[in-house]
Amino acid sequence: MPPSPPPLSDTTSNSDDDLRERKRRKKRSWIPSEKNRLLFMLMLTFSYFLVELIVGEVTNSNALVADAFHMLSDVVALGVAFFSVHISTKPWEKNTYGYARAEVLGAMTNAVFLFALCFTILIDSFKVSVTL
Fold first, then answer.
1. Residue 43 has pLDDT above 70, yes or no
2. Is residue 25 part of a domain?
3. In this structure, what are the phi and psi dihedrals at residue 12, rounded to the nearest 5 degrees?
4. DSSP assignment, residue 28?
5. Helix or strand or coil: residue 95?
6. Which residue has the higher pLDDT, 50 or 20?
7. Given this model, what pLDDT does residue 5 score?
8. What is the extent of the structural domain holding 45?
9. Looking at the domain assignment, is residue 79 inside a domain?
10. What percent of the chain clears pLDDT 90, i.e. is strictly above it?
């Protein structure tokens, strides 16, 4: 027969010292949080969008401008994800599920944007094939 686990009170301590120790370790962690990673990717993608748009306009390249607007859709998706992660970490008192549903709604919003983008690409491809 396996030994019984230790009592719950021995394994989890809610003392102030334990909370301070966890906060200290969290501050020293080199792993960035979800919000920081999303913000970094948002800034990086937005900078690529600007560079592609400017170079595309200067060189009169439709391919670069089209790819720049594709990057803009990625920026919007990352912005929605960042906002939903930011909202989901807020404390709650009234809401039954808290703000954790914000991440689900953000994912649904991104999916709707993606379907709309795919639909417009499909319509444009039909227009091109009809005119040929």
1. yes
2. no
3. -120, 125
4. H
5. coil
6. 50
7. 57
8. 32-131
9. yes
10. 14
* DSSP calls for the chain: -PPPPPPHHHH----HHHHHHHHHHHHH--SPPHHHHHHHHHHHHHHHHHHHHHHHHHHT-HHHHHHHHHHHHHHHHHHHHHHHHHHHTS--SS-SSTTTHHHHHHHHHHHHHHHHHHHHHHHHHHHHHHH-
- Determine the Cα–Cα distance for residues 102 and 84; give it in Å rounded to an integer: 5
> Would 14 be classed as within a structural domain?
no
Condensed to tens digits (0 to 9), the pLDDT of residues 70-129 reads 888 889 888 888 888 888 777 777 766 666 677 788 888 888 888 887 888 788 778 878
Residue 36: name the closest of 107, 92, 72, 89 by CA. 89
Task: Pick the closest to residue 52 from 33, 35, 70 (CA basis).
Answer: 70
How many structural domains does the chain have?
A: 1
Distance CA 34, CA 95 (A): 23
The gap between the terminal CA atoms of the chain, to the nearest Å, is 78
- What residues contact residue 131 under an 8 Å CB cut-off, 6+ apart? none
CA–chain centroid gap for 28, Å, is 24
- Closest Cα to residue 84, out of 115, 42, 23, 29? 42
pLDDT confidence of residue 85: 82
